[in-house]
Amino acid sequence: MKKVAIAMLFGACTLLLADGAALYAKCAGCHGKDGKTKALGKSPSIAGLAVDTLVKDMEGYKAGTLNKSGMGGVMKGQVVSYTPEQIKEVAEYISKLPK
Predict the structure, then answer these.
(1) Where do the domains of the chain lie?
(2) Can you tell me the distance from the alpha carbon of 12 to that of 6, in angstroms, rounded to the nearest whole number?
(3) pLDDT > 70: what percent of the chain?
């Protein structure tokens, strides 16, 4: 019974972590709650960008191969711990923010 309860708890935590809005909270400090803030005054707005574009960019930052607006190092630190599923979840959330 203990194993079942632990597995259910782990599953619930995983679902919470996969929530795009919760993941975006980490991004809001630079990009703003609405995704319209120029991060550190450098980057363009990210609100409403296409999911594919956002995923590609975050994967590039994570790999250390992308340095848009000179923000590669900062962004790598932000997304390095995201799984591919989490990247997709946060990208989907950002894509739905009004431009």
Answers:
(1) 2-95
(2) 10
(3) 82
76: tokens are: 């790598």
4 pLDDT more than 50: no
Q: How far apart are CA 61 and CA 74, in angstroms?
A: 9
Burial (CB count within 10 angstroms: exposed 0-12, middle 13-18, buried 19+), residue 99: exposed
Q: Which fold has domain 2-95?
A: Cytochrome Bc1 Complex; Chain D, domain 2 (1.10.760)
Q: What is the pLDDT of residues 29-47, one digit of tens each?
A: 999 999 999 999 999 999 9
User: Which value, to the nearest 10 degrees, does the dihedral of the CA atoms of residues 27, 30, 36, 37 take?
Assistant: 180
